[in-house]
Specification:
It is built from 19 helices and twelve strands. With 591 residues, the protein is an alpha/beta fold.
């Protein structure tokens, strides 16, 4: 696979720093575009940036009464930035809105809201899109578009009307960020809103592109599958193809939290800003008569305007460039930093190697077509194990950029790895009806393991209803709380991550070790029952050559025993961390 390229760049972004940042070391995997420093001129106006030192904070409790008019059947949440001691700003100051894709649950949309507010450093409002009013077809011509009386369309109109009716917002602009298939609701609302010329829309990985004479710019990556189904939209002038980040989340189905979209989320609207005359402390509107100068730029340029009369402007620029990566970067690209983390990573790596060794040993009891299929699966599983270790060892910030192309290729193997699991599952089902009962038990146990892995992976992308029910159960029964109402605090980020990852944690950390241990115990009995029914010993390694021990299945029995012990230890460690996490989040609720 060749390294992805940009089809074209966005217009140069004009940026002026306003407030100092807390300097942080810049991670090695952040791709900083080339900066063009230009002196102030009458042709170039400045745009306020989000260069404050932010601490994402979302406070609980009801919002001001002005938001009560938003449609009651649309889930709404506001994420605030600032310190815990900062007062809650009025609704009229929240000038950024996020609408999620329909395949996200409400809890996942809240997690994305936290990310956007952290990246942009400003208050962001969420209007939850549940996908109602549209057909599920991913291709635009086949979709049934929502009507204007849909609750989400009405909520958008109400939010815009409330914002622009405030006297202080007469010369400001409103920003809407959407992901996936949220655009039809936004387009319907834009066609009916008298404020549409002052509304700026940024689409991240859109599956449906907004049509019409609106101020919209879309960002996608070259391998995004669903976004590429609309060929007309992907080739439009207002669509920019971004390069993959070295810390990318995925090649074919990236979420809005993928590091490849970080710069688009942070500054994606700057190419659409038409007003340029407001105070620099406001990210919002500028005079509509101002003309943006056409600065020479390449595909990776940002234009930065520096006020030569301000002696501290350069230092603020350097501090802005030293902004650290968002917290989601560590979730997507985890790497051990402390001794316990290194020990845990080594333990999980050993268990993965042990599972691969068992695949090799299984070849000793196969023959004919089954042996050929076994060797094919061994080759593919070995390839994906190498992929796993390569990504793990290059997750360190200093290594990501150095191996960027190789990491993109490795991430592109995710989809083939799922197809291999499906093939493995079909192969196991093919052999369920074996004449010997113990072999049937082995393949039934193996089918539950491989089938559950395929099922859980599919629910990540297609099982929104199941994910929602699981997350709702965890919220209400395990943690004992509901969805945040009005506003929430930054500490909710950890809780949201626990709730969203609960299904994968229980499956990968508890269910799989138990299932593998059961499979190991059954496989240990194969030589005793099938090869030497008159000998009750589990192992019979004496007085036989290595080849005889291999073909009789005794080597397989020994390997299964060692794997059983290792899985038992992994299960104990996972259970300890799982219980600890549940207790920690429960204590937070009781405070």
């Amino acid at each position: 696979m060749t390294a992805p390229t940009e089809s074209r760049s966005s217009p140069p972004t004009l940026l002026e720093e306003t407030e100092p940042l807390s300097p942080n070391p810049i991670p090695a995997d952040i791709q900083i575009p080339r900066i063009t420093i230009s002196p102030p001129s009458p042709d170039v106006s400045t745009v306020a940036s989000s260069a404050e030192d932010i601490s994402v904070f979302i406070a609980g409790g009801p919002r001001s009464s002005s938001s009560a008019s938003v449609a009651s059947d649309v889930y709404e949440l506001v994420c605030l930035c600032g310190g815990d001691e900062d007062p809650e700003p009025p609704d009229s100051e929240v000038r950024t809105l996020y609408v999620n894709g329909s395949w996200q649950t409400d809890q996942e949309a809240v997690q994305e809201l936290l990310y956007i507010s952290e990246v942009r450093g400003e208050a962001v409002r969420l209007l939850y899109n549940d996908g109602s009013g549209m057909s599920p077809w991913p291709i635009s011509p086949c979709r049934t578009l929502p009507t204007l009386d849909h609750p989400l369309c009405q909520a958008l109109l109400m939010v815009w009307e409330q914002f622009f009716s405030a006297p202080e917002n007469q010369n400001r602009e409103f920003l809407v960020i959407f992901y996936g298939d949220a655009s039809p609701y936004i387009q319907q609302a834009l066609t009916q809103s008298r404020h549409s010329p002052r509304i700026v829309v940024v689409g991240i990985s859109p599956t449906v592109f907004i049509q019409g004479d609106f101020r919209v710019h879309n960002y996608r990556v070259s391998g995004d599958f669903f976004s590429s189904l609309d060929c007309r939209g992907t080739r439009a002038e207002n669509t920019t193809i971004l390069p993959y980040s070295s810390g990318l989340e995925g090649v074919f189905l990236p979420s809005i939290r993928c590091p490849s979209f970080t710069w688009a989320v942070r500054f994606g609207e700057q190419c659409l800003v038409a007003n340029r005359g407001e105070d620099v402390e406001d990210r919002g509107g500028l005079s509509q008569d101002a003309e943006r100068s056409q600065l020479p730029h390449s595909e990776r340029d940002l234009a930065v305007v520096i006020d030569s009369t301000d002696p501290s402007s350069m230092s603020r620029l350097l501090e802005w460039l030293n902004q650290g990566s968002p917290s989601s970067d560590m979730e997507i690209n985890p790497y051990p930093q402390r001794c316990p983390d290194v020990a845990l990573s080594a333990l999980y790596a050993i268990s993965r190697v042990s599972g691969l060794v068992q695949e090799w040993i299984l070849a000793s009891v196969h023959e004919g077509l089954d042996l050929q299929i076994c060797y094919s699966l061994i080759l593919m599983h070995t390839t994906f194990a190498v992929r796993y270790f390569f990504l793990l060892f290059t997750n360190y910030p200093q290594s990501r950029e150095r191996f960027r192309t190789a990491r993109i290729v490795a991430q592109s193997l995710y989809l083939p790895s799922i197809l291999v699991l499906v093939f493995d599952y079909g192969n196991v089902l093919r052999r369920l009806w074996m004449p010997q009962e113990i072999l049937r038990a082995i393949f039934i146990s193996a089918s539950t393991i491989s089938g559950s892995i395929v099922f859980v992976e599919c629910t990540r992308w297609m099982g929104r209803g199941l994910r929602h029910r699981v997350q709702q159960f965890v919220q209400q029964r395990v943690i004992g709380s509901g969805l945040p109402v009005g506003t929430v605090r930054a500490s909710y980020r950890d809780r949201a991550g626990f709730i969203i990852g609960f299904l994968q944690t229980v499956h990968g950390g508890l269910y799989l070790p138990v299932s593998i241990m059961v499979l190991n115990q059954i496989a240990i009995q194969v030589p005793r029952i099938l090869v030497r029914p008159n000998n009750t010993a589990v192992y019979d390694l004496h007085n036989k050559s290595a080849e005889e021990n291999w073909s009789s299945g005794d080597v397989l029995a020994v390997g299964q025993t060692l794997n059983f012990i290792l899985c038992a230890f992994v299960l104990f460690v996972n259970l300890w961390f799982f219980v600890k996490s549940v207790l920690r989040h429960s204590r937070r609720r009781r405070r």
